[in-house]
Amino acid sequence: MLPAGHRLRASSDFAATFRGPRGARAGSTLIVVHANQADARAGQPPRVGFVVSKAVGNAVVRNRTKRRLRALMAARVAALPAGTDLVIRANPVAAQANSASLAAELDGLLARVSARLGADRS
Length: 122
What we know:
This protein is α+β, with helices and mostly antiparallel strands. It is built from three helices and four strands; from the N terminus they run αβββαβα. The chain has helices at residues 11-19, 59-74, 99-121, and strands at residues 24-27, 31-37, 47-52, 84-90. It has a four-stranded mixed β-sheet, with helices on both faces. The longest helix has 23 residues, at 99-121.
C-alpha cells in the first residue's frame, strides 16, 4: 500500500500530470506512464496515481489490476525523485499479464520517463 503522502488524488493533479509543460510519457502494450515535475512541488515526496478504465474489465478485474500496480509502485516509490507526480494508466491487456511482466514493463517505462524528465531539467 502506498503511504498517504505518496498518493495522487485530486483530478486537477491528474490533469496537470497529463498535460504539464515539463511532462514526459512512455508507454507499452500493458501500461502507459505519465510523469511531471513542477517547481511548486520541489522537495516534496513523489506522488503516484492510477487510471484503470472500464475497457480493462469489470470492477473486480479493474480493482485487481490497480492493486497489483499499486503494490509494484509501493516498492519503487522511494527511488523516484522528489517532486515527481506519476500517473500509471493500465491498458486492457494489463489485466491478463502476470506480475513479473508488469514489473518488467514498469521498470523499463520508469527508467525512460526519468531519463526524459532529467533531460528536461538540464
